Amino acid sequence: METFKLKTAVSFGKDALAALEELAGQRVMVVTDDFLAKSGLLDKVKARLPGCTVETFTGVVPDPPLEVVARGARALADFKPQAVVAFGGGSALDCAKAMVEYGKKLGATGEISFWAVPTTAGTGSEVTSFAVLTDSQKGVKYPLVDDALLPHRAVLDPVFLAGVPAKVTADTGMDVLTHAAEAYVAAGANVYTDALAEKAFALAWKSLPAAFNGDQEAKGHMLLASNLAGMAFNAAGLGLSHSMAHALGGRFHIPHGRLNAMLLPHVIRFNAARRETAERYAALAKACGLTPTARGLAFAIERLRGRLEQPGRLSECGVDAKTVRDQGDAIAAAALADLCAPSNPRPVTPQDIKAILRELA
């Protein structure tokens, strides 16, 4: 028997932010970063919280480290909110998730309603039980997976994507494509996740080039694709691209989506050695009007990566081949220990990972 469930209610489309008015009169903590707090966008959120006692935590930074989560959890426990609104990119959402759970252990009382308002189209964190935190001292990213991390409500308002730079749109957009592609072939895939993953991949494939060039409607489509892909991988799992991206990102501080853009074609070719997986990749390629083979899909992703002006090798990101070679064993061990690795459709060895690293260097 298999089970598929959804917890998060999703408000989307024009003026979706109005959904926040349901929190009227409550004690609300808004978790965001310093840039959004000073940009004026935070004021749009606060304006939708009538009669609320609002506290803001603006200490979120990219790849949220454990010490930031600890500070935020203490602030949350002291304020004792009835609701938490995570406002920002994947880092803000992930940080807020961990803050809520740790804050409860530090003394936050009662049921806390958790709302997620993403400002980038990438992680799908607003509908997943995943949160990725960083141990800065060890240089390791830790994906947390727990149904307690699932938001109660996601608010997808495309107005917040208007000012997102092209480079960030490319990075986050390639993360969407990787989420969808990995979920489609993951060990836990089923008929429900297939529908979500295929739609997410096809929508992102069509929309990402226009979004990169600043088209606002396309950016809104990417926000929906990110959301659909998040639902898919939350149930199906991910795979080798994400486990390697976590291992590399913690060490070399390269944006997560950029790493996935580099890794995904190599991982597709690796996984396609399994006939059933190759057929799945072919079906995904066909849904986008591409050459219906795994090799065709990998080549098309590399071509798209070039259109988005993204690097194809670690050396283009300032990481030399010797450094990658010297840290190969540690990177492989970290990737295999990652929570995304077990759902990869093909078994993986340290030698397999080091072979992909040599191709990436």
Describe the structure.
This protein has 14 helices and eight strands. With 361 residues, it is of the alpha/beta class. A six-stranded parallel sheet has the order 1-8-5-4-2-3. The protein has a two-stranded antiparallel ribbon with strand order 6-7. The longest helix has 22 residues. The mean pLDDT is 95.
How many strands?
8
Query: What would the average pLDDT be, to the nearest integer?
Result: 95
The H/E string reads EEHHEHEHEEEEHHHHHHHHHH
- Structural class call reads alpha/beta
Determine the fraction of residues in helical runs and give it as a percent range.
40-55%
Number of helices: 14
Task: Using the CA coordinates, give the radius of gyration.
Answer: 20 Å
Share of β-strand residues: 5-15%
- What is the molecular shape? globular
The largest β sheet comes out as: 6 strands, parallel
* Unreliable residue stretches: none
Termini, distance in Å? 43 Å
The largest sheet has its strands arranged as 1-8-5-4-2-3
Describe the protein's topology.
Blueprint: E1 9-12, E2 27-33, H1 34-39, H2 41-46, E3 53-60, H3 66-79, E4 83-88, H4 90-105, E5 113-118, E6 130-135, E7 140-145, E8 153-156, H5 166-185, H6 191-212, H7 216-236, H8 240-252, H9 256-271, H10 275-287, H11 294-307, H12 321-326, H13 328-337, H14 350-360
Parallel strand pairs: 1-8, 2-3, 2-4, 4-5, 5-8
Antiparallel strand pairs: 6-7
Helix pairs in contact: 3-4, 5-6, 5-7, 5-9, 6-7, 8-9, 8-13, 9-11, 9-14, 10-11, 13-14
